[in-house]
Amino acid sequence: MTFSKGLNASAATLTKLRTGDSFCPFSGMCVTCLDGCPGLCEIGKSSVRGKEVLYPQPFGKTTSASEKDYPVDYSHFNIMGSAVGAYGIEADPDKAIFPAVNLESAVGANGDLKLNLPIVIAGMGSTNVAADNWEHLAAGAAISGVGIVIGENVCGMDPNVEIKNGRVVHSPNLAKRVKDFQDWYNGKGFVAVQANVEDTRLGVQEYAIEKLGVEAVELKWGQGAKDIGGEVKLNTLERALQLKERGYVVLPDPTDPNVQEAFKAGAFSEFERHSRIGMAEYEAFMTRVEELRKAGAKYVFLKTGAYRPADLARAVKWASDAKIDLLTVDGAGGGTGMSPWRMMNEWGIPTVYIQGLLVKYLDRLAAKGAYIPPVAIAGGFTLEDHIFKGLAIGAPYTKAIGMARSPLTAAMVGKTVGEAVKAGKVPNEYKKYGEKLEQVFIAASELKHKLGKEAFERLPVGAIGVYTYFERLAQGLRQFMCGARKFALSYITRDDVAALTKEAAEITGIKYIMDLDAEEVEKILG
Length: 526
What we know:
There is one protein chain. By secondary structure, this protein is an alpha/beta fold. It folds into 4 domains: 11-54, no CATH class; 63-230 and 277-492, TIM Barrel (Alpha-Beta Barrel), CATH 3.20.20.70; 233-274, no CATH class; 493-525, no CATH class. The chain has 20 helices and 17 strands. A hairpin with a 2-residue loop joins strand 6 and strand 7. The radius of gyration is 24 Å and the shape is globular.
């Protein structure tokens, strides 16, 4: 089985093999490495540009995720339908139609944080690609009634942040990010503020609670794309010096005169800013949760990455003990583009595998009568079949699907197409639909009626893309659920999917398709 393709070349790092598809499977190198080649592959390019080639390119302008072909993924499961009965609605063909499926979900220890759709947009932090599209993404989340998390380092990266005695007292960037959601909030969904090591030291979450009216905060143990802290690139010496002074790890050291001279001479054009890794410890975790609640946080979340099984067990147990309002588990393979490329492919527990472990661990706690936190599973989910499978494999614990890269794509495309339409330059792909927003975007007329003409004209145009994308997901999910005869999310169970291979069944505990319904079949035929 081949797990990776082109190990020494990828579109993500703008590298390729001179020999094309002919390469050594164990090294990824061209079968013949030619003296005189200018270095098209990752090894060759690394010999010239070194550490720059660790990251997807162009850095800060793209999103990217693993291209590794894991042995088992969600395509190794199929959704099961039925010809009898209905759950959550009368078993009447005139009533049990897919538009009647209820997609509302809820998180929070008391189930009082309502979602129109079972979606949470995972942390979008200080990276350029997130910052450049945030207002579109946040407004789209708000009008869709889903959750969205403001990621790490937003205050620390804010050029105009005010810090007194080591604590944030004012951050225009974070204030704007919160407002971009709150301005369009319609009673469903939420905006949460995440914190890493540096954010916690700066008191970012306390500032968000006390000054910005934020009710939900998220503690971060990492993400599925990498097991180090976040990183961004800095293109000025002044910015590198500023962030080093704020306590970040900046490479190369901008205070070194030799580094300054090399930068000014054009030897390199960007500094790297890195965040520190966290150190999870039970007492400190419980204390921090209590501090946030005393500061006024109504909801406290925990997000953990694709770490080893013992760390997942810690996350589950500690979230239970602290009565966390949402536990997000992020599997390997996802990502929004800032992770080292090889790490994104080769590190961590892939999503299907980590969800299999997650269910086992939650089952053990549930058997003891322990508090079970609402769960979101993340790591590469993009379309409605993924959502159904994620909810079913994680039933009854999974209340939402964490998504990041695909909603960001919807925001970016919506922004690009919408701004072109407003400028009278409709892209050729969409000219056949018309010249106006209401003609090009299929959900625009619905949104205009829902929001009102004045509000619709103020709406960041990329938000139309996010809303339209989510509407597609909603209808597709309703169709799958109707076929399974499940007319509300709470009725979805693990036997609504079947494993297509015995390995997929073994990893998740989902029944192998040839063994499904065995007892019922025996009764029918007996």
